[in-house]
From TrEMBL, chains A, B:
Source organism of this protein record: Lentilactobacillus sunkii DSM 19904
Every Xaa-Pro dipeptidyl-peptidase C-terminal domain range: 543-800
E.C. code: 3.4.14.11
Recorded catalytic activity of this chain's protein: Hydrolyzes Xaa-Pro-|- bonds to release unblocked, N-terminal dipeptides from substrates including Ala-Pro-|-p-nitroanilide and (sequentially) Tyr-Pro-|-Phe-Pro-|-Gly-Pro-|-Ile
Subunit structure: Homodimer.
Protein name per UniProt: Xaa-Pro dipeptidyl-peptidase
Stated family: Belongs to the peptidase S15 family.
Domain of life: Bacteria
Function: Removes N-terminal dipeptides sequentially from polypeptides having unsubstituted N-termini provided that the penultimate residue is proline.
Amino acid sequence: MKINQFAYVPTSHDKIVQELADIHFLTSRTKKMADPVMLYRQLLLKFFIEKQSLATRVQKVSNLMATPKLNAYEYTTNSDSVTKLAFYNVGLQLLGFEVGLDFELTDPFKAMKEYRIPAAIVDDTLNRNQVIDAWYKLLNTRTKFGQTLIDYLASQGYYHQFFGTDDLKRPLIFNGKSQAVFDTSKLIHDVVYVEAPLDNDHDGKRDLLKAEIIRPADTENGLKVPIVFTESPYDQGTNDKQADALTHDVNQEKITRKQPNNLTYDDIKVDYDNSNLPAPRQVKATSKVAEESFVKTWTYALNDYFLARGFAVVYSSGVGTKDSDGVRTTGTPDETLSATAIIEWLHGDRTAFTNRNDQVGIKAWWSNGSVGMTGRSYLGTLSTAAAMTGVDGLKTAVVEAGISNYYDYYRENGLVVAPGGFQGEDADVLGELTFSREQSAADYLKIKDTWLDQLKKLTNGQDRTTGSYNSFWDNRNLLKNVNIKADMLLVHGLNDWNVKLSHVYNLRQTLKNENITQKLVLHQGQHEYLNNFRSVDFTDMVNLWLTNKLLDVDNQANKILPDVLVQDNAEPETWTTYKDWGGDANVETISLDNGRLTNLNENHVFSDKLPDDLFKEYIANTKKWQKALFTKTHSKLNKHAIKLVSEPLDHDMTVDGQVKITLRATSSADLGLLSVALVDYGNAHRLTAVPQVLSAQKILTGYHWRKDDLKEFLPEKKETAYKKFTDAHMNMQNRTNNYKSDDLKPGQYYDFTMPFQPTFWRLLKGHQLGIIIYATDMDYTIRSNQDISYTIDLGASKIELPLLPTDDNQQ
Amino acid sequence: MKINQFAYVPTSHDKIVQELADIHFLTSRTKKMADPVMLYRQLLLKFFIEKQSLATRVQKVSNLMATPKLNAYEYTTNSDSVTKLAFYNVGLQLLGFEVGLDFELTDPFKAMKEYRIPAAIVDDTLNRNQVIDAWYKLLNTRTKFGQTLIDYLASQGYYHQFFGTDDLKRPLIFNGKSQAVFDTSKLIHDVVYVEAPLDNDHDGKRDLLKAEIIRPADTENGLKVPIVFTESPYDQGTNDKQADALTHDVNQEKITRKQPNNLTYDDIKVDYDNSNLPAPRQVKATSKVAEESFVKTWTYALNDYFLARGFAVVYSSGVGTKDSDGVRTTGTPDETLSATAIIEWLHGDRTAFTNRNDQVGIKAWWSNGSVGMTGRSYLGTLSTAAAMTGVDGLKTAVVEAGISNYYDYYRENGLVVAPGGFQGEDADVLGELTFSREQSAADYLKIKDTWLDQLKKLTNGQDRTTGSYNSFWDNRNLLKNVNIKADMLLVHGLNDWNVKLSHVYNLRQTLKNENITQKLVLHQGQHEYLNNFRSVDFTDMVNLWLTNKLLDVDNQANKILPDVLVQDNAEPETWTTYKDWGGDANVETISLDNGRLTNLNENHVFSDKLPDDLFKEYIANTKKWQKALFTKTHSKLNKHAIKLVSEPLDHDMTVDGQVKITLRATSSADLGLLSVALVDYGNAHRLTAVPQVLSAQKILTGYHWRKDDLKEFLPEKKETAYKKFTDAHMNMQNRTNNYKSDDLKPGQYYDFTMPFQPTFWRLLKGHQLGIIIYATDMDYTIRSNQDISYTIDLGASKIELPLLPTDDNQQ
């Protein structure tokens, strides 16, 4: 168990006194108290909500042990000083740690060191100022259940006891972070229809987009609040069955020879055309009051957390979703404009109506004009897309596992390559999945023909036959036109094989040229949210960030949050800060017939064609295929892959960034594909990429408000012998780039340079690096089982490994 | 998908009109409307919360299709009648079914038949009374997401729109069930300390027990409310690590020869002694206001549902839990009294204090005196235990997977037999697990020595050496002293191998002699709650039940709820009502060398001793052992078991109740054990015993209130070849009963009659019944791997199968 914190703001004693007074832990009376013991007792009694009787609170203080003999109440009535030992014995219990189980009263510091809980004080005895400082630090320390102690206290009603009084600032900032001082039982739920600068269903009217707003009741009394905005195409429902039915059968598709051409980027480049827009609707009247309300099923827990802290939350789903106009386009600027239209309305720059028919305008009069976007996957993608437009009002986006280029989501180097776990999915399938207008029967009747046309366009445009980058994909490349003003907090899982690492890597590289602040968090999960983990204070980091960006509080967020924060793959619950990802690595180039690599099967030729029964077995269960491919001694694929393995490493080696491989290779046919995987060989209890629940419903984000499970990536119970940590795929006719089709002559050698998915991976001393070269990837590529064999000239092939310099790159 | 309903109350037209007026669907104006079409339009518009504008509501009605051509708004403005087709087309959409996906507008009745949704009306066109009746039925029909439509509407704010007015009854009964008309944002949370008639830590003071109360704000204005009470020893925290450390190692324990004796029940019978109680504390003052409040992490979703419906909810944990006095006893009357003391306080018969020290009394002045208990497993056990005392105020208990005799939980016929999944657990381990006083450091310091003594008593008393029933267990037999007044709703999973079926079966048999109403629900789960399933309206059934029992509403609950409701194991989502369980079965007796049974390995002798490596392999993974034991053709255990298999059945056969087997057998030693499993052989997509999430967070139990996942036991994706559906175990020295040790001479034949776990299991036509006879059960018994062989005289052995008569027993 490790309680890491990256969002704590070092604070001066004077400011501490002011902040503790703001949250009522110090009063005019206790501020003057000279006796540290008496002051300490008052702080402890205040910890247990004052609307409870003194007897009750004394009982609760008496339940805590201060020393092996004295309980905390006895201690503060009998001692003449506050020792560091007593302070932290009690402190650990307040943080939820159990005596005898998590720590011993004789030495709390041992446990604190193990759990990474810093003590504020070095002296053995605390004077009154040190009691104040240490108390402040304790309130800002995370509990055993992953929340700061002040957040836990808020969930127990600490702030709620002051709700009736005028004596509570709103918003209230404590250690740079917005506090849970807003009454979530009085949230207001409004629906409005924003008129977007779009007519993507070509009905001659601008598209109205439904937006759902949740805002604090305080806005009714004049408070202007910032907005956390999530654009989720899934939010109004999904067409799961229809999308399943559209999913392509990768076992029937073939790798097809492409006619060689000399396409240049200009041949396929598209400029988004949004001209010929219908005129906006006339605003016939205005209203301050919404006509429609809503109740949500899914909400993002992180957004709910901010609702208790004085942020409004807005959800919208965009063109083609239920109760909105238009059709889905799977990633074109139409979807980006769906998001920016909402932001423009929140910023006062666009019209919304109270309903779809009466043209009664309604303004976001309760907004302070500052918007931050949140969300994962498609939601994060839309945050990135919106940020890239430079839309006014969008101050930041917290992008979790977002796509930065749709081509890289469904294709790779001229090949159809699926997102992990979604073989056969493509842009058309995702369009159908999110076209929730279909769920509204009368509305669907009106749009059905338009939609079926659009679906055909998606299927044709995505072009599964060639897999090449084309105008369709160029229209879905978010990195193409950059006009960004928002600061970016990027979050991605190092085991995310759905939205792969190239998305966040390429986005980050692009943003390096821009005049914004960007931060990056890389965790060990797959495609996961990160807001409820024990080992990292992600929620607090986002709070510090949004409090800075949306409330303009000078809390040093840019300085305090690490530029790059990476969770280690080998040691559980370990997070390290870095200045950069990949940029400071030393590149080591190794020839593939280097003596340090063993060719396990001593082959340089392999055939892609599997016996029919084996092929069927692997289709039915690709885990068997993975096992045969990656296990060093497994023989079933020995003639179908080249397996190169390094000597055991004599020290830890961390791959930092994007590995590249250059293969000199031939195909026996006039078409072909190459795949390469890098594998970490060595028995280890690797981390689960899917988070495990540590404590159900233990995170309380406000007083009688949303609960969440505490989670963590824990070590697997059983050791595993290997793990693939990155891979690369290429159509051999795309050795130049992903849009030009090269010729490929059977038996002729060419050089193929392939970048791997970027990574940050530590191979432990004694482990071995594996380089596995193969063709069809059962998990990702078309499975054609064509009769092609490949030859690799290993001596003319090389790998370029970016390695983290030892011990000198930590921030 | 099947939407079964068992809690609908048939209602006359006059009562329907009254009830619809009560919930404001009919107004003085609409009551008079003669035109069915106009009336229907008004009902549809009212469906979409009236605080929203008319334009918004018209839009929402217009989104529904009434016929393949007309939307519902067009239909009600253009038609001169309400057809059954239009009514149910719209009705299905209101219920959440999608046009084109779930049903077709040309024939909604086909889907309704498939989903088991009854139409209220047979005529093709509805007159105004039929519109009213059909609307009422529709509101009481369950949606695609498992709630009644009126409950869904409540979650959307339907009742909330009347909260400000005086025009809403509280409680409000609709179709016999309490409605969600209470404001959950204003719930009051009180803590009190009930003085129990106990001093089980022998400190000379009666034990104070913490009770946590959640009650509607309306109680402050004089409303008296009924109480849903859950007694959960887990609720204040559990000592997981400490309990793990205490868990017994079943691989080191032996089956031990017991000295033959002639014990009679009188020798081991105990009468609970609660004399020498200290005097009650003096009540020095009284208060109406609690001093302490609380915030919960875990709550039972079913209880939360009732909070929105005007029931108070009380949680308490009993002796030995955090903030209470005493020590845990794992199932003695001390724990029962912990629960009944709370009920007595709720009924006005016992004292509670506002805190632990000041002796200020506080009454449950807001209680109507009627209490119903809920909860699963240990919680359900305590409900049963409390009910058996006849305590005043306890009107009913909804017992999910409760224990009825602790001996049957940890032992079987003189053998140590674990609860499934908890090998090595015993009464001492459960005691340690729930002794949450340990988590309060200062409190634990006071009680530690007492607790360690108590723990020793548990370990000694449970006696893992003999496994016999003794005074320790007699003190933990809930079926021994019966004085019940509460009506009982029993719920159990037919795949529950933790709290096995004998518990609910024996309880039900005992209750048959009592003057109460009892109902039984048997589902296909393991150890599961049943309140969030799509295929059964369990929550509505409990609502009907508690509204009857605790609010004294004459809603015919006793008549309407089936006596026995059983989920079928072979057909998904299928529930059938019966008059009895086991009582109406025809017993078929079969000799074990009957020609209808094939002895697969043609043996009648088997050895229990496994080769060491195989034994270790099975310890590491008991699934491998199960596979070897139950697979018909598997050979590794051929010499370690006798496998008898019937011919394929020529018709479905349902085992209904408790099978018995009599084996004439010898042991090669002077000790031994026998195990028998009954197996359903036949390839089938069997149901998952762990529920799958169908729709996350889709159940909304109130307006902006608790959300729950919709679940179901779905068919497994892959076929399986067999399933064990019941078993039995016996120590051969306990052939007479479970407390007397019989002699056992090596090589001498004796008759051993063993009852199986009761069941309700349908073996399909073509399946085969398997009878597997073995000794050590890796999943349940001590694993001693002793060198003993067993001989069975199959010709002198027989099985007695209680079979459900075909087609004549449904209620």
